[in-house]
Amino acid sequence: MSAPAANGCADLHLHTYFSDGTYSPEELVAQAHRQELRVVALTDHDTVEGCAPTENACAAAGIEFITGTELTAEKDGHEIHILGYGIDIQNANFLGEIGKFQAVRQNRIREMVQRLNEINVPLQAEAVFALANCRAPGRPHVARALVQAGLVGSLDEAFERFLKKNRPAWVPKFKMSASNATELIHQSGGVAVMAHPGLNRSDEVIPAMVETGLDGIECFHTKHTAATAEHYLQIAARFQLLITGGSDCHGLSKGRPLIGSVRLAYEHVEKLKARLAQRRAASVSHFSA
Ligand SMILES: [Zn+2]
Ligand SMILES: [Zn+2]
């Protein structure tokens, strides 16, 4: 198990039911309060819909809130998840761009369902959309719909038999390039952080991502061991990257709720906020020039 920054107070990697988590924003914040977290960031996949309600709930609970999202990107054949923190959630360009990714996700669901139907698994796309009830549906929603329809016995079975890579209903996911994702986050006033690098095993792409503006790296994550965290702390130091951390809690959908199990020290939150302030100042002078 990881034992990262256990004396910290921030969990900067959280999902709600606006992507593939199970908590509402209010439930998430109630859990954050129970865990005595001082700062949270919401990082739903390809959407910022949950940010406004989470911010409101945080304000009521006296918890500091940072807007965020988690984009799926690609670099040299590696799938890379990029966290965007502090983005302006009203930014029209950003909303337009992620709207395209949401449409791609919805089409992917239809394709997966079609492939299931071809092998006589009678799932309907509408059942998945109704269950997901969000703009960024994904494979976990298909798995839950299969369980709900009684077509498989468990989420694991859904992935093992149908949804895992190279299984009959697997459909490759379209991914934007890592540099485009970083640029999109910057244009929206945010900072770009490589999520859970220990899961993607793609250290070799880090220098090129730094060249194209990567701001930080998620050193502390539920699935990072203490040694993995230490490894990425060294990389952060070498490239002068921000250090972030979070539990990647999906509510009750992936076993026990993880919120608060990774606690980032506040000094790292302060550095993140300082970088955000710099970026905003730069974009203001850019637009007034
Ligand atoms: Zn991720
Ligand atoms: Zn995540």
Annotation field: number of helices = 11
Mean pLDDT rating: 93
Question: From the helix content, strand content and strand pairing, which structural class follows?
Answer: alpha/beta
Question: Helical proportion?
Answer: 40-55%
The number of strands is 9
Shape: globular
Q: What fraction of residues sit in β-strands? A: 5-15%
Low-confidence stretches: none
Biggest beta-sheet profile: 6 strands, mixed
Span of the ends, CA to CA: 50 Å
The side-by-side strand order for the widest beta sheet comes to 6-4-5-7-8-9
Folded structure, characterized:
46% of the residues lie in helices and 14% in strands. The chain has 11 helices and 9 strands. The strands form 2 sheets. A 6-stranded mixed beta sheet has the order 6-4-5-7-8-9. It has a 3-stranded parallel beta sheet with strand order 1-2-3, with helices on one face. Helix 1 runs parallel beside helix 2, helix 4 crosses helix 5 and helix 5 crosses helix 6. The longest helix is centred in the middle third of the chain and has 27 residues. It is globular and about 55 Å long. Bound molecules: zinc ion (ZN) (2 copies). One zinc ion binds next to loops. The site of one zinc ion has 4 residues, from loops.
